[in-house]
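Q: Hi! First time asking for a complex rather than a single chain. Here are the components, and I think there are two in total. Is that enough to go on?
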Amino acid sequence: MDDNSPQYDSNTIISTSRLTKAFGNLVAVNDLHLQVMRGDVFGFLGPNGSGKTTTIRMLLGLIRPTAGRAIIFGMDNAYQLPAILQRIGAIVEMPIFYPYLSGLDNLRVIAAASGMVSGPANDRRLAEVLEIVELRTYEKLAYRKYSLGMKQRLGIAAALLTDPELVLLDEPTNGLDPAGVFEIRQLIQRLSSLGKTIFISSHILYEIQQVCNRVAILQKGNLVKQGNVDDLMKRSEQIEIRLNREDETLYAQKVLQQAQEQEATWITQVHIQRNRQNQSLLLVDAPVARSAEVNALLARQSLYAAELHPREGSLEEVFLQLTGQTAQNGAGQHGGMVALANPVQPVQQHMMSTPEVPNGKRDTV
Amino acid sequence: MSTFPTTPEQPMPAQARTATVIMGRQDFLSVLLRLTGTELYKLRRRAMSKVLGIIGVSLMILVFLLISIGELFTLSNPAPLPPQCSQISNPQGPNNPNGVPCLDHSPTQAEIATADQTKQDQIRALSSPLRLPFSLYVAVQVLNIVGLVLLVIVAGTIVGGEYSVGTIRLMSTRGPTRVQYLLAKVGAILFCIVVGFIFIVLIGLVVGALLNLVSGVPTDTAFVSNGGIGHMLLYALLAMLGLFVYSSLALFLGTAGRATAAGVAGALVWWVLESVLGTVLVLVSFVVKGPVGDFLKAIPDYFISNNVAALLQNQSQYFVGFPASHLSNLHALLVLLVYLVLFLGLAVFASIRRDITN
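A: Yes, that's all I need. Here is the structure of the assembled complex.
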């Protein structure tokens, strides 16, 4: 089998194989294997500069890959790009329209360029998409007078214009206020319920966690992980236990570590951390569904928890685990949402990449 | 899961779109025509195009008004009779054949008639550029300068503007190929040249004809009967070709430089440099004799402006009687064709090959 052949089945909307882009010595995307299935709301995660936009540009044919290939709707985008693009609605970074045209006129231009009939035949559709993004009131206002949020919404309207099968959104909530972000999230869910496949790139992890069923995490151009969001988040589930005394906490740690080595292999790690009140907390990396079993293990040694909290995982934690970043340099609160910043630490790419398996496959969670 | 041997014959079946989305024909020509229409729609909506149009029309009217000043001045003055000999210091006479011709008597009817005839001849000569076929020559000469500048601005803007503003990214993700986009822009430029040329030249001809009414000199229609109309049409078409070559230069430079400024400034600098360089080379060839001098002298024969001028001159001889150019039509057409292929080919190449980033 050809190593360059993407993995494919009849439900695969996007499949890339060894997709690589180098700008001189800088490898922006390295050996990327992505797989997006029909109906997916696929989150494409990574800090700024991780190669998300470069990948999207390669998928849309804006830039040529240095190596590898991308198959979309069963067609190679190096040869059948026009046919592919007709089935995609996309926003790449901040959408830019003609500043001297109104929002409506801009959509008319986009409609004609997208293969739709020119003239009033498509006025109903234009009205529909403007309604979806709530820009009907401002449709005749010149684009240059639009606010950042309005520009972003017009971009989404343009992406939805032809009722595409695949909606590719690059940082769609940039410039939107929290209400706008909420609307976009609802819109994505609505599109997903209509059977559309959504590919959404973002560095805002919370946003992705809310809407996506599958994600790929990219760092420094390398695919760190790809898989189901629920499965990924299970990896970061924790059980938080507080005991009344310091010595009890230390003893409990020892007990659980021993159990981990014997019967409780589902425990990944046990460690102690101090909370804001300077109390010792025992953190057990284990599925929250096993909370009762953890409690029983402690009770068997006459250790009784004063408090026991199952802690749901988050994409942020998964990302930090996978990329080896610390909370301080890897993530922070950004506009009320958890956002990735540029990683400070050098990345050990090979350690973080998912293991390569024969035929170019990568493990998926 | 199986490995997918992608071939163009195995695309995934497309899902039906919602009923409110009405797609047009997707063959190459239909897409190209739709895109050309889109380009023209954008141009129509721009204030810039209207301003440029107004400038073109105003300058054309102004030129004809300026031409008519001489005619109006002559009309408003009395017939030019020789002065009375008593009023001048150096009168012509038998002893002074080199003196100024003058009248030593009251003007006779014959002298007055001769003076009137002279005045009419002057008016006829001065108003000649206001009448066909000479007015076409004037209008085209005006457009060769004014129209060229305006069209270079239009061409540079509609191509380079996509890069300057950043809309190229949006448009390149909508389906049509980059070649189609570029050809649509070429189509829009051609449309602007043809429509703009016809409109502004017609305005010039009409304004000229109206101003000519004052002179009372009728249009001599002899040029119609001796095949002048055909040459005039050819003359207009060749003038449009000249404008198209410069517009293509602006299109190429706008594409290569990814900016409006590159297209507009580049093409205008080229145009100015051609005349400057042409003059310099001819002057140098007078100094440097021999094969080198001949070579330098021959270089301007391959400039765009000289070949456009040659084509126009070779046609204008049939309706305004100017001498033909030393360059043949075939030579000029071939040179312009090479330039066109070069500019458009390079623009297509740059457009296809490049990565569209920020």
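A: Chain B touches chain A through 46 residues (CB under 8 Å). Let me know if you'd like any chain examined more closely.
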